[in-house]
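Checklist before submission:
- one chain only
- standard amino acids only
- sequence pasted in full

Submission:
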Amino acid sequence: MAVAVPKLPKGWVAQMAAHRDIDNVCYEFRRVYDDKNVLHPDQSYWLITPIGDADGVNAGLRGTQAISYQEYVDHQGPLTYDRFSSPTVPTAELSAWVTGHVAAAAH
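Returned file contents:
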């Protein structure tokens, strides 16, 4: 089983900073660092992945969705990085960000 994740430049890494499994969905926040270990908040992202084996363990790619901080700002409006990256963001809000349905209030 593979999960599609955003492509990063060579040598860059995405480090999981927050993780929650709620119902049949996994929510992960990943901080992105370049090859010199410098954080790139604009590239850091939330990843939302269905979990469970309803389609069997060999079902292929999961229907993963992701949104980077820069994508959020470009398409949905102002929001601080601290608010975007908070491990306590409500899951309904995360789902709405990824699908582009609402913009959160800037804090």
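Reviewer check: Residues 13-99 form one domain.
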